[in-house]
Structures are given as structure tokens and as C-alpha cells.
């Protein structure tokens, strides 16, 4: 039974395995390590496309494409796709299923278990949603691992002798995490974690898209959905180009107009200054919580594609007064770390001396009413497990009735830092029956157990009757019922997924069509020709001829892709 490590990202996902040679990434059907976390419906209105082929359709068919759905995990929002509604859990399940299939093809054996990384700052509802998605995809989750912890684990395992205090800054497509760690003799300890679950590179892209529209005298709200999506795709390309260039521009046609879109680093910085500023707070919070002085930090490791932005690197250098380093490829670190964790779960020989401990990034507790100076104060938050407690953790406390003849106590389970209960996130509720009596006479014990995946179990015991109420988060507000899971599983099985052996052809055709959409003039005509050439090759149904043509066109497309924004 193989257990893989999976980085389920907002924009890209990866799968990796741990074996005698250490952690290694597994390629998808296109031979690529990054699978875009995008799901689409093909032109026939039925076949599902997952990964690159779907991403390449985003600008042309926004109604038939779903992306960035990780940002909706743990909410009740739905995504409409080709006239149907999907939950973010279902869409994530499709990406996971595709990774599972890729891993099985690469390893030549079934894969039924996984360690999946989640943003450290993901709350209980978001974690539970991730676990549900895996189950629907046919993967048992051995553990959820925090993304910056995974990145640190990958770096630490590769450099086991080192003794150091380091910080991991992980700015991905949709989330930002900060973790401060200490490492000695193969023991890695997370000292503090903080973050923002709704801040990532995609926010910078969205901002640039609007800025470019404004510069071109177009009203963002008046643009059609395809034009907006096209602008977002261009903004992303321009943003990436700016990480290494002094200026970036592209000629294209949007809303029936030919325009040149251009951006300088100064314009970029002005348009995104507030987003950049939001990176500061979690960094300061984690430094404060860890009790570690900035001058004692030996290394600053950047992971996540969005840390390639020059402004982010510069900010990290300013805050930590040292140049950040990049442990390997910032896109790969988290999946490799998740695979190391999978190796640890399987007690792999090669990891005998490695120990990793993590902390809870949030406080967990319940809602209470207190009597202070004869006055009742309701809606108060009483933490049981404080944030940055080492996991696993188990704590209990007693609570008494507050009214005469009270027969029920509602235990509202909350997560967050606000002293006001309703300002925190409600994870669930347990209603407990107590014997009637004078107020304060009846009491209950509430025990919180927070596991290594950041998932919570709650036990409540009534003192006088000895009655027990126990609930793992599975039964709380966030989770799907078993019946619901079975229904979703059926839905997954009934999906018509684009056949794997056609994946390369489909992805290439969609790439060519995408480039045709983005380009102008002669370039556009050239793409038209390439599309016809490939269509002609496909109609021969001669696999060798198709493969030869595909390889050639693939290289040409890649070059055009790299150069159309300059
Ligand atoms: N060269 C670059 N310059 C600037 N931004 C980049 C560059 N390359 C990638 N990005 C940005 O990085 C983001 C994707 O990063 P990554 O693949 O690490 O995210 P993810 O793992 O999908 O998301 P998350 O971890 O938040 O769930 C995108 O917003 C993308 O625009
Ligand atoms: Mg990521």
C-alpha cells in the first residue's frame, strides 16, 4: 500500500513519493511535475478536463472552467461549471483523483493513501473539507501536514547535520504562511506559525489585471467574463515577466480593441502596495509568538511561486536583515516535504533519526457566559488550547450551569483569537443534557484533543450523571455525512474523464488555441497554421506520426509561450 505526498495548491498541485533515494516528484500524463489545479468541461459538454488542458481553456471558456477553488474550501459556496454546480470539495477531489492516477501510472502500483499538505493557517473547516475531498478521490488521508512545515521538512532532511533557527515564508497562489523553526540533530520543531488564508499571488494578479484595464481606458465592470479572464491571464504573464525584467509588455486584442498592455516595477509596486503590506502582520505575529529574536534567525527560506516577485524578496530581506535563500525549486519543496512525511508515517528506514513537531496555528475553545460583578457577560470565548501549542495536545476544563433549572448546556466549539465568541469561527456544537438544579450546581468537563493533522476531537462528560458525549470533528458542522460522501463518490465514478492516452494531444491542441487567442497579426496566422497541421496529423490516426508532430509543435508552442510577453 503506497502512501504518497500531495501538495494540493490553489494554482498548481504536485505528487511525490519517498523511497530509498529520498523524496522524488512523480510526473503527470504530460510528463510534467506541476498539474494546474483547474477543472474544465470539454466542448462536448460532458468530458471533464483536469490540469493543463483545462487551464489553457480558461481565457476562451471561463464558463466551462473552474480554477482557484481551494480558496472556497470549508465554505458552502458552489462553483458553476458547464451549467452544473460543484462544491469546492468535489472539484478538489477531481484534481486529487487525477494525481492519484498519475502516481499509480508512474509507480506501477495502486496508491490508496496520502499525506496532503494544507496551508498552516487553514482552519478546521478547511482541513476537514480537504480530508473529505481525498476520501471522495479514493485516498485515505494518513495525515494533513502544514505547508511551511512540509517545506522545512524537505529542507531539513536534505541537510540533516545543520543546526539552525529558520523561518519559512510560503506565498503561494492563494495563501500566505509563516513558520519559525528550530532544527538540531535531525529534530525539527515548529516554534510558531501564522498566516493569512486569503492572500496569495492570485490577489496580485487580480490587482494588476484591473490596473491594466484602467490604463487601457477600459472599465473593469463593463468587460465581459471572457475578456476579464483574458486580462487576468495576461496580467499573470506580465507579473511573472516582471520578476526578472525591467519592464514588461504585450500586444493583444481585448473587447474588440487592439491594445498594448505594459507595466513597470514601480507601477506594479504602487498598484499592489497594500497587498505587500499585509505580509508583514503574520511575520511579526509569528516572531512574537516564537519568542525568537530576528538576529537569531539563521536562514530565511522562500517557498511558493509568488515569492519570485522581487518586491516580496526585498521585503523579506529588509525585515530579516539577510538575503533569503531558496532551498531548491520553490514550487517543489512542499510536495517533497509531504512525501517525507509519508515516509515518516510509514516508518521508512531512511528517516529513522528524523523527528518533526508542529504547532496549532489557532486557539481553540468554547463559548461561555461569565458573571462579573453580578452582571452576566455572554458571548465570551474561553480558549482551551492556546495558539502555538505543540501538537498533539489535549486539554480539559470544567464549566457549570449559569441558570437555575437549566437542563441543557450547548458547547459551541470555536477557533480564533477574538475574546468575543461570535467573532471566531464556529467548528461545531454539542448539546449536553444535565439534571435540573440550582445554577452552578451541575457541571461538565470539556476535553479538547488536537491531533497532528490539526483536526480536533471533543469529549464532554457530565459530572453528576457520568454521561459522555464525544465528537470528533467528523461529526461536527464541517464534515459531510457518510451518505453524502457515498453520493459524491458515485458522482465521481460516473464522471467522464478525458482518456489519459489522449492527454498530451488534448493539452497541446488547447495550448495552440490559447496562444491563437492571445496573439495578434502574423503570429496569430502562424498559430492558425500550426493548429491545422496538428488537426491534420490527428486525423491520420497514426500514433507515430501524431507523436512526432506533437513533439515538434510542443517545442514551438513553448517558445511562443515564453516570448509573447516581453
Ligand atoms: N516568476 C514568477 N513571478 C511572480 N509570480 C509568480 C512567478 N511564478 C509563479 N508565480 C505566482 O505564484 C503563484 C503560484 O504559486 P504556487 O504554485 O506556489 O501556488 P499554489 O501552491 O498553487 O497555491 P497555495 O500554496 O496558495 O495553495 C501564482 O499566483 C503565480 O502567478
Ligand atoms: Mg502551495
TrEMBL record:
UniProt xrefs under InterPro entries: ATPase_NBD (IPR043129), Heat_shock_70_CS (IPR018181), HSP70_peptide-bd_sf (IPR029047), Hsp_70_fam (IPR013126)
Key word Nucleotide-binding present: yes
Pfam families membership: HSP70
UniProt keyword list: ATP-binding, Chaperone, Nucleotide-binding
GO terms of molecular function: ATP binding; ATP-dependent protein folding chaperone
Family membership: Belongs to the heat shock protein 70 family.
Name recorded for this polypeptide: Hsp70 family protein
Source organism of the structure: Paracoccus aurantiacus
